[in-house]
Amino acid sequence: MLVIRAHENERPAHEAELLAVDQVHGGAIQHEKYFKVIVRMEIAHLIDIVDRRAEPDGARLHVERCDQLWRIGHTLPRVFFLFYHEARQRRKARKMEPIQIAMVGLGTISERLRDAVCACESMQLNAICHRNADRLALVSAQWGIDKTFTDYTELLREPEIHAVILATPNHLHAPMTIEALNAGKHVFCEKPPAISAEEALKVQACAKRTGRLVMYGFMFRFSEKHNLIKRLCSEGMFGDIYYAKAGIIRRYGDPGGWFSDKSRSGGGSLIDLGSHIIDLSVRLMGDPEPVSVFSRSFRNTENLNNNIRATEHYQALSEGTVNDVEEHDVVMVNFANGACLVAETSTKSHIKEEQMYLELLGSRGGVVIDPEIEVHTVQHDLLVDIKPQINCSMFDYQGAIDAEMRHFADCLQNGATCISSADEGVMLMKIISAAYRSQAEMRLVHINEFS
User: Cys-Cys with 434: which of 86, 374, 402, 445 at CB 3.0–4.6 Å?
Assistant: First the structure.
C-alpha cells in the first residue's frame, strides 16, 4: 500500500509538498493531515516504482493493494485518483505478460504443479531446477523446458524469473524461501511451510521485510467442495462450531525416501498429512486462535514394510534407507473460544481401507464433510438429515491445485489478498511444533511457548 505523509507549510491551503513515503502499519494509512498535493516526481516514474517495488533513495516502498486508495479516496486529493487510475490501467496492460515461473524440485508433486502452471494463462514455466543432473535432463526433455539449473542460487540471479515454486524436501522449504525472498522473488512453497515454528516465523519476518509474497500449498483451501462448507459455516447454518474431528488414515502409505528421514522431513504422518487436515479444519471452524495442544504418536506396526506385494503403494522418487519417523498421530487442539479439534493421521495402520474424514459440530447443526457431505440438524422439531445435491461431492485433487495456482497469479498481478500466506503458515507450524513437543515431553503444550 502506498502511504504518503504530507505536512502543512507556507503554501496556500489547497497545496502541500510531498515530503516522505512511508510504510503502512497495522493496515491503516498513517497521516497527519490530508492535503491536495503537488507531486514533484513524474507520475509515470512513480508508477514504475510501485509496479517494480523499487527502493527509491534507499527507502523500501511497499505497494500491495492499490485498491485501498479507492476505499478512502473521498478524503484524498485528486492527484491520487489520477495515480490510482493510471496504475490500474498499467496493471491491466501487464496482465498480458505472463508471470515467469521457475520450478524447484522435480519430485512426484512437481508434475501436478507443472500442469497447474500450464493451465493458468497468467503464468509461464520458464525454468526448472534440480540437484540431480540426470533427473533434470530427463524432465527437461519431457516437459520441453530448455532453461535448467542444478544450482538454486544461480537460478535466483535470473532477472526474468518473477517467482519460484518450491517442491523440495521439507527441511529445505524455509531456507530456500528466505533465499528467494532476499533475491526479490515471490514464492509458492508446498506444504509444510517449514519443519518448525521457529523457521516459519523467520519466513514470515523475511516476507514482511522484503515485501514479497509467500504462499503455501494448502490445496484444500481451494477445494470447491470444502469452500462450499466454508460458506455455509460463515453464513451461520451450523451455529457456533465447538468441535471438529478429522483424519487421514492410510493402511499402507509410507512413501519412504526423504519422507521417512526425520532430518529431511521434520517428522512422519503429522507433518505430512496433518498439514492438510489441521489447516483445513481450523479454516472451516472460522480460524479460532489455538491456545494449547496435547498429542500422542505411535510407531508400532511390525510387518507393514516395503516387502508388501501386489498392492499400490505411495512411493517417493528419492532414495533413502533411514526410517525414523512416527507412523500414527493423534492431536487435540484447544482454542481460545472454547472449541476443540481432534485430528488423527497415519501412514501405516491395520485397517480395511484408507480413510479421510472430517466432521464439524455446531450449536445449530453438524456436518459430515468427508467422504460425502451430509448435514444433521433440527427442522420443525424433527431430527433431519440432509444430503445436498451438488456437483462437487468429491474432492478434486488437480482442480484444487489448479485453483491455488490461479490464486497465486491473482495475488501477484492484481493484488488479491492471499488466503494461504506466511501468516497461515506460522499458525499451522505452531500447532504442529506444539504437538511434537507434547509427544516428546508427555504434557499439554501452550502455543505461546512459540513466539
Answer: 445
